[in-house]
Structures are given as C-alpha cells and as structure tokens.
C-alpha cells in the first residue's frame, strides 16, 4: 500500500497530463480492471475500453479541481470500472451480477453522472467538428486545440497573411458554434 | 467595430490576456451592452467545451499509446489471451450456454430411451419366434433350390430343341439405352413371356432377359444375353430428362412389320389419354408393332416411348415420357448392384444432322422385340 502523499503527487501529475504519472497509474491499475472484466463475461478489448474510460473519469475529476482524495486511487478506479461494466452488460442484455459485491467499492454514482454529461458534450463537439469539413476542421483544431499562432497557421495553410487566416477562422468558428449550439440546446432541452 | 475584432477582444478577455485598463474598459462596455455580455457568456461556455474536447482527445490518445507501450514492455498483461487464460475466458463466457445444451441433450436422451423401452416391451419372445420362423424358411428355401436345380438341368438338356420350337406370340420395338446390351421397350409387349428375342435391322437374332418392369408406366428393361452380341461403345442419341414442347416435330423408328419403318409427326399434347400425366400425345401414324419404339425430337434425343394408340381415331398415339426411363434405371440400380455400371447419356451425337443422316446412324440401335 502506497503512502497517501505519493498518490497525491500522481494525481497532480495526471491533472497536468504528465506522461510519467499517467503511465504509472495505468500500470498499477490496468491488470486489476482486466481481471474484473474477464471474470465477468468480458474480453480484453472490453477491459481496455472500460479501464480507459475510468481513467478519463479520474482525469476529468482531478482537472476540475474538485477532487478530494477520500479513498485510494485503486478503489476509485475499481469502483468506476465496475459500475461502467455493469452498465454495459445491462445494455447488452447479458447481465450477470458480479459475485464480488462484498469487495471494497465506493459510491461513484455522482461522478458517473457528471461523466455521462461530459460524454454527451464530447460527442456533440466531436459531431459538430466532423460536420465542418476541411479546411475548417484543421484550421480550428490548429488554433483552438493545438494553440498555434495565427502567423504559423497562415503559413501552414497557405494563406497570404495572418489577417486572411483570421478571417477564414472566424467564418469557420461561426459555423462550428452554430452547429454545436443547435445540438447543445436540443440536448439540454431533452434532458 | 467589425465582428472579427469583437470576437478577438472577447477571446483575449476570456483568456485574461487584456491589460488592466483595457479590461476595465471592456467590462464597462459589457455592463452597458447586453448583446456583448451575451456573447461573452456564450463564448466562454463554448471555449470551455472546446477545451474539454481537446483535453479529452489528447488524453485518450496518450492512454492508447501508453497501453501499447506497456503491453510491449510486458508491464501489463498482454492484449491477447493465451493458452489457459483463453480457455478460462471462453469457459466463463459460454458456460451457461454449454449447461443449457448439455441439459437439453440429457433430457432428449432420457426421453428417447424411455420411448424405446416402452415400445420394445417383450423383445425376447419375438426374437425367438422370428428365429424359429427363419429356420422354417431356410428349410423351404433349400427344398426350392433343389427343385430349381432339377428344372435347370431339364432346361439345359432341352435347350437346343427349345430354341427352335419357340412360337413368338407378341412383338414390338425396343431400343438400346446402353451399348452393353440394355434395351427399353413396353412392358405389355413381353408380359407373361418366358422367352424374349430381339432382332436388329439386319435380321440378326439375340436372346434377351427381362431385368426390370414397371407395369404402371408400361416400361420394361431387357438385357441381351446372347454371346454373339457385340457391345456398342456409345449410342448416337441421348435420352431427354425434360418434357418437350407442344408442336415440336418428332419421328420414330419401329417394326410394325419385319423391316424397320420410319414415320414422323408432332407432339400434340403434353398429357396422354384422358389427361394422363405420365404420357404425352403424338400426332403420328403408328401401328401395333411401333409399341416400345423411341420417339426422337429434331436433335435426335429420345423424348418418349411409343406405348398405345387411340382406337377410335387414326394418327393419334401416346408415348411414355422419357424421364421415366431414368426412374426405371434408378429402381433397377437400387434393386441390384450388378447394374451400377449402367449409364444413360443425355447428349445426342447426331444433333445438327439432317433426318436421313440421323436415321442412318440410329437404325442400328433400334430392335424388334418378340416374346412368346
């Protein structure tokens, strides 16, 4: 069992997307989740999916800054994975109750609700960006996601100057916002 | 201010890149201009979403690379299950299905054995009776064999005289279906005949035996047993498996008298007398001796066997459809394995020739059939 402060450091590394920290977390927890999934009607591909989703839950939780470590990381990851897998089993209609209900799990319902919400938002954004088409998609990704400089973008995309690129980026952004908010309002209205 | 500049300002405000005095100015503007305020709120949300999206995408990608790296380094269990793990996995996954299948199999076995048990309540008595009966039958058979042998001896001694003194009472036509000496004719021609002889168009006589009859369809299969018969390698005509079309021109060769006679006509109907579906109706001049003769279409394929004629009107005859020849052969093969080598062809080598040439080739394969 690791001392508490080690885990705190790991989580800080995770929040900063530090490769070393993520790798350590991955190595320490993956086999445990894989065993859980395979013992409950899953394949190793399922295990990979579920584990990575649990890692995303953890990642977004630490990034939101509201994460208080009131249990071990292992326990948290295990609980989230278990919940996610149960849900998937229910969706696929081959539900069989894992026989290990006495194991050490924590309540993660609230985290998963937030996660669902973020999943929906992620899908909306992905959908909207995929609807844009080129060159808008690459242009916006370069500026907003990769945070590239307007001059660099203009050079890379073959615009005569940064102003032209900015003009184009503005048009693309307006389209993206339109598509995204159309879905976003619909989605929230339904919810 | 145009829209692009407004957006730029909003973005740098959200990112906190404005200088303090600019920021103050912008915030004042925001208070007075509700449209700008709205835009700031909306764009803040949007950028937040976009950042979340980007973060998660990057994180997912890094998780994937880490997964692959760690797998390669062997620090986590490999992606593909090997050996025992795979067996365990498959067993876990399918154990329920296997259990259901096994129990169904078990129940079925029990039910079947129960049924068998009920149906064969007193097997011993029956078996004993049967075996006793078998003994009786065996004895009878022995006696019969002795009788037959006696008769055979008698026949053998009388054979030469017998051959000369046979008085043939019925006659008709037959044709080869296999070069080894198998002929098809009508069953009614040789009904009740003890001796059968066939004659080719040169007048040569061969002894034949009946090996298969189908009274209902009026088909008989004969085999030439005479040693003087020389097997023919292949037949110039094939035997059609399919029904022919009405109005198709047809012709036949037969022995209404001692010479081979050609006559031609057409297929008038696909059914025979009174709608009989086994046969078909021909418009052809046929006489008594034409019975058992082959009916050829213009390709030289056998489409039927002439069997009967209508007594009330002239020029109407009926033929058995050729596909029943195949049925008769199948029956024959089922009954006796000695005839497995018998083969019918459906390809006709005289196809494309004119009538004279066809008849020239075919006439050697059409025989007169006589029985006493």
Report what the structure shows.
The complex is a heterodimer of chains A (191) and B (372). Chain A has two domains: 104 residues, RNA polymerase sigma factor, region 2, helix turn helix motif (Rna Polymerase Sigma Factor, Chain: A, Orthogonal Bundle), CATH 1.10.1740.10; 80 residues, Arc Repressor Mutant, subunit A (Orthogonal Bundle), CATH 1.10.10. By secondary structure, chain A is an all-alpha fold. The N and C termini of chain A lie far apart (42 Å). In chain A, helix 5 packs across helix 8. The longest helix of chain A is centred in the C-terminal third of the chain and has 29 residues. In chain B, strand 7 and strand 8 form a beta hairpin. Chain B is elongated, with a radius of gyration of 46 Å. Chain B has seven helices and 13 strands. In chain B, helix 2 crosses helix 3. Chain B starts with a helix and ends with a strand. Chain B has 372 residues and is an alpha+beta fold. Classes of the chains: A mainly alpha (191), B alpha+beta (372).
Layout of secondary structure:
The complex is a heterodimer of chains A (191) and B (372).
Chain A: H1 4-15, H2 19-38, H3 44-63, H4 73-91, H5 109-132, H6 136-145, H7 150-157, H8 162-190
Chain B: H1 3-15, H2 20-32, H3 34-73, H4 83-119, H5 123-165, E1 170-178, E2 182-185, E3 196-199, E4 205-214, E5 219-224, E6 238-239, E7 249-254, E8 261-269, E9 279-283, E10 294-297, E11 301-309, E12 316-321, H6 323-335, H7 355-362, E13 366-371
Parallel strand pairs in B: 6-11
Antiparallel strand pairs in B: 1-2, 1-13, 2-5, 3-4, 3-13, 4-5, 7-8, 7-10, 8-9, 9-12, 10-11, 11-12
């Amino acid at each position: 069992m690791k001392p508490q402060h080690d885990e705190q450091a790991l989580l800080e590394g995770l929040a900063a997307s530090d490769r070393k920290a993520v790798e350590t977390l991955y190595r320490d927890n993956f086999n445990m989740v894989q065993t859980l999934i395979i013992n409950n009607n899953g394949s190793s591909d399922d295990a990979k999916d579920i584990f990575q989703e649990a890692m995303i839950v953890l990642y977004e939780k630490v990034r939101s800054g509201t994460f208080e470590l009131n249990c071990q990381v292992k326990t948290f990851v295990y609980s989230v994975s278990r919940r996610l897998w149960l849900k998937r089993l229910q969706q696929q209609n081959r539900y069989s109750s894992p026989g290990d209900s006495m194991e050490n799990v924590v309540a993660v319902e609230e985290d998963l609700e937030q996660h669902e919400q973020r999943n929906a938002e992620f899908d909306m954004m992905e959908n909207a960006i995929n609807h844009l088409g080129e060159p808008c998609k690459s242009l916006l990704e370069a500026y907003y996601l990769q945070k590239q400089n307007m001059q660099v973008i203009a050079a890379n995309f073959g615009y005569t100057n940064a102003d032209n690129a900015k003009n184009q980026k503005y048009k693309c952004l307006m389209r993206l916002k339109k598509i995204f908010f159309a879905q976003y309002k619909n989605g929230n209205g339904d919810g | 201010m145009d829209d692009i500049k407004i957006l730029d300002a909003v973005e740098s405000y959200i990112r906190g890149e404005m200088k303090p005095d600019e920021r103050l100015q912008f915030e004042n503007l925001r208070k007075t201009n509700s449209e700008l305020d709205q835009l700031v709120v909306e764009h803040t949300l949007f950028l937040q979403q976009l950042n979340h999206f980007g973060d998660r995408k990057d994180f997912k990608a890094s998780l994937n690379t880490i997964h692959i790296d760690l797998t390669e380094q062997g620090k986590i269990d490999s992606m593909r299950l090997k050996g025992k793990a795979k067996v365990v996995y498959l067993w876990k996954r399918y154990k329920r299905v296997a259990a259901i299948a096994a129990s169904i199999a078990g129940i079925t076995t029990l039910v079947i054995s129960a049924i068998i048990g009920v149906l064969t309540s007193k097997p011993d008595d029956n078996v004993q009776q049967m075996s006793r009966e078998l003994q009786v039958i065996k004895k009878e058979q022995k006696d019969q064999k002795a009788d037959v042998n006696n008769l055979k001896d008698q026949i053998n001694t009388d054979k030469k005289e017998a051959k000369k003194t046979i008085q043939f009472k019925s006659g008709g036509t037959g044709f080869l279906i296999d070069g080894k000496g198998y002929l098809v004719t009508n069953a009614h021609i040789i009904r009740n005949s003890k001796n059968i002889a066939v004659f080719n168009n040169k007048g040569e006589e061969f002894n034949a035996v009946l090996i298969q009859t189908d009274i209902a369809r009026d088909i008989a299969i004969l085999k030439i047993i005479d040693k003087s018969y020389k097997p023919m390698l292949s037949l110039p005509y094939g035997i059609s498996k399919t029904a022919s079309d009405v109005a198709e021109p047809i012709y036949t060769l037969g022995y209404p008298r001692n010479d081979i006679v050609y006559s031609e006509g057409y297929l008038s109907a696909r059914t025979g007398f009174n709608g009989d579906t086994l046969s078909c109706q021909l418009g052809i001049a046929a006489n008594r001796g034409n019975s058992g003769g082959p009916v050829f279409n213009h390709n030289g394929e056998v489409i039927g066997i002439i069997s009967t004629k209508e007594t009330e009107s002239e020029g109407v005859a009926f033929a058995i459809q050729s596909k029943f020849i195949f049925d008769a052969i199948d029956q024959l093969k089922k009954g006796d394995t000695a005839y497995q080598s018998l083969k019918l062809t459906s390809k006709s080598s005289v196809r494309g020739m004119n009538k004279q040439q066809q008849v020239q080739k075919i006439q050697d394969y059409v025989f007169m059939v006589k029985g006493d």
